[in-house]
Amino acid sequence: MPAARRTRAAGLAPASDAPARLRVGIIGAGRVGAVLGAALTAAGHDVVAASGLSAASAERAARLLPGVPLVPADAVVAASDLVVLAVPDDTLPGLVAGLAETGAWRAGQLAFHTSGAHGLAVLAPAAEVGVLALALHPAMTFSGAPEDADRLEGAPFGVTSRPEHRPVAETLVLEMGGEPFFVDEADRGLYHAALVTGANHLVTLVAEAADLLRTAGVGDPARVLAPLLTAALDNGLRRGDRGLTGPVSRGDVGTVGAHLDTLAERAPGSVAAYVAMARRTTERALAAGRLKRHEGAPLLDLLAGHVPGSLASERAEG
To answer: What is the sign of the dihedral through the CA atoms of 235, 237, 240 and 246?
Structure first.
C-alpha cells in the first residue's frame, strides 16, 4: 500500500487528489463505527449517512463524522455503496435479516460487519441478493475516547471472506490503517473467545487487583501495578507459560492457602476468581513442565476445597 494512503488512513485529512470512491453508510455510529467511518473518510471515501440511537452516538458522530446525517438503518443502506455494520453481536443477525425482509439490500453493494463473534453466515440474507459480504473485526479495544482513531494505525483486523473477495477485504483494512489476518469461518467463535479472554478479562483482573490493593490501604494502586503488570504482559507475550512467576509456579501451597484465608476474611467476593485463575495457572504450569506432578497435586487439592458450593468446600467448612 502506498505510504500516502497509509497516512490518510491514520486519521489525517484526505489528499486533494484522492476523490471519494465509495459512498459509505455506517449503521451503529458507536465507539467502533464512528472511528471506522472517520478512517474511511480519510482514505478518500464519502461517508454519506449513519445511524445511531443514543445521545453518545450522536455526539460521537458529530465529532468524528461532521456533517453526516443520522437516519434510520434502511435509509443508510439505500444511500450507500458500502455499508458498515458496527452493532452489538446479538443485534447483528436480526438487523441483517430485517433489512433483507424489507428489500433494503441490493445487488452490487458491499457490506462488512465488525463483530468478532460472527463470520459470514450472519450476512447470508444480504449475500443471497448479491451483496459482497465481509467480516472485518478490528482486534483492538475502543473506549470512546478521542485517541481511539489513533489506535487503528497498524491494528490487526480479523478478516473472514470468500477466497475471491480477499483482495477487497484486504484493501479496505489497509485503507483504514489496519493490518489484515485471515480467520476461517469455523474458527471465528474460538478466535473471539481468545480475544475476550485476553482483553476483557484482563481489564477485570487489573481492576480486581487494584480494588484489593485499596482494601490493603494502598492509596495509588496504578503506581504499584503499572511496572509489575507491564513486565508480566511482556513476559507472557514473549515467553508464554515460561514467563510465569509467583507462588503457583513455585508450588508454594502455604502461600496460596494464606491468600485464600485472607481473601475469605477481607474480600470474600474475590475468592472464586482467585481460585479459578490459580487452578488454571496450576494446570498450565503442569502442562508446560514448570511444576512437577508432585508439586502441582497439593495445589489442585487445596483449590478444589475452596470451590464455592462444592462438596469439598462444604466438608472443609464443616
So the answer is: positive
Q: What are phi and psi of 85, to 5 degrees?
A: -105, 100
Single-letter residue type at 76? V
Question: Residue type for 82, please?
Answer: L
d(CA 273, CA 269): 8
Amino acid at 164: E
Among 138, 145, 137, which Cα is nearest to 56's?
A: 145
pLDDT in tens, 152-185: 899 999 999 999 999 999 999 999 999 999 999 9
Read off the DSSP letter of residue 18. -
Separation between Cα atoms, residue 10 and residue 1, nearest integer Å = 13
- Cα-flanking dihedrals φ and ψ of residue 134, to 5°? -140, 150
Owner of C-alpha cell 484486504: 170
> What is the identity of the amino acid at 62?
A
- CA–CA separation, 51 vs 85, rounded Å? 10
151: amino acid identity, one letter = R
Measured between its terminal Cα atoms, the distance across the chain in Å is 67
pLDDT digits (tens, 9 = 90+) for 265-317: 999 999 999 999 999 999 999 999 999 999 999 999 999 988 654 433 443 44
Round to whole Å and give the CA distance between 185 and 267.
42
Q: pTM of the predicted model, to two decimals?
A: 0.84
Spell out the residues 6+ positions from residue 234 whose beta carbon is closer than 8 angstroms to its own: none
**Contacts for 162-171 with beta carbons within 8 Å, 24 or more apart?**
162/120, 165/132, 165/133, 165/134, 168/110, 168/132, 168/134, 169/112, 169/134, 169/136
**Identity at 147, one-letter amino acid code:** E
What's the grid cell of residue 194?
A: 481468545
Backbone angles phi, psi at 296, to 5 degrees: -80, -30
Could you tell me if 153 and 175 are in contact, meaning their C-beta atoms sit under 8 angstroms apart? no
